[in-house]
Target: Radical SAM protein
Amino acid sequence: MAYKLSPGVYLVTGALRGAILDTNSKKVYSINKSAVSIIQNGQKEDNYWKDLQKLGLAEVTDRYVDSTIPKDRGVAKLDFVWFEICTKKCNLQCIHCYSNSRPPKEDIHSETRETLTHLDWKSLIEEGFSLGCRKCQFIGGEPFEYKDKFGHSVLDLSEYALQVGWKFVELFTNLTLVKPLEIQCIKKLGLSIATTLYSNKEEIHDAVTRTPGSFKRTVENIKLLLDLGVSVRAEIVVTKINQHTIEETIEFRKGLGIKDGKVDLVRPSGRGSDIDTVPDLEYYLKYGLVTKPNFYADLQSICKSRSFNSCLKGKITITEFGDYLPCIFSRSIVLGNSRESRLSDLVNQSNVQSIWKNTKDDVLVCKDCEYRYCCDDCRALSYSSCGEKIGFKSAPFPNCTYNPYTGEWAQGVWNVDEKGDVFYNRKDFN
Model:
């Protein structure tokens, strides 16, 4: 009698252990090296196979069946665009700003490059649509700082995107500059809004934005938008200043009626790379680090993760200077410029496709982990966290505490030393 893993059940091997991914129940099982060998070699260990059968993981077979997760070898398509229409302009001065945005009057070292015109943006909107993309976000800096010489605003660009045919248009804004008539326009156009709440306490929120009164204006406009039925999500970024109010802020967000929004650690990009913005270890543990195998095996997700980067696939950022970036947080990875290459040409370039197809099989440490296809990834965070000493596509993920070479959890985090060598950092973790 021979056995095989049931349909929809897959084995993934790591350096020391393995994982059985059951996409039927979405459960993930950790197994030791002996169990991996039994499954890989089809060994006739009846008792073990019968245990797997009881869990619905195996069945009797008369022939070998490959249990490898299917891989898509096709070309990735453009799925989402960040239109960063104000890269450097913002009325706030948030301590963690990834793009170093600031009020124009205070930017004594302002960028001298020519910015894209309103017609340039309209052309890019048209081109993105022609490539089959239907979802976008207008972001900054602060997108409501955008005004061309004819007075066109972010709402004009948003309306044009909807006229062209885009189905989902979101504005990521701090909401402090939005006027009542603009809120009515947002409702009329059917736009979605994303914003950031730093704390339920006014003085702490304003300390993060370094702008007195910002909390009051943001919250007032959130309420006005929600009263009109506009979709609003609010991110919470954990920094040294607001770390002790995060739970209260989550409850405050719920009380406002906001259902969507993540809690995210400050990213080491722009002003966020300042050590003074970094929260204490206990808050890193609570809000950012993966400290136990809390995974699930969704078939669509794991198939995507085996073929493409789970986050970057199909995404492009276009800055106000026309630079193409793989992500708004990947400021140093410039893939091209809209004045030199069309968006349609960019998405088919080998370097762009290789980033979109950058799986955990390419990432140091992760490639030896049995959980690599059911775990998240952030190339921007990984690259900046290692000081860009290791390549963008191979930098280890810094928020994972698992050591696939020893099977340990929560004993350290993966760092890179001055020579560019990866090590499991136990000292700083404890």
In short: The domain at 80-350 is CATH 3.20.20.70 (TIM Barrel). The mean pLDDT is 94. The chain has three domains: 2-61, 80-350, 364-425.
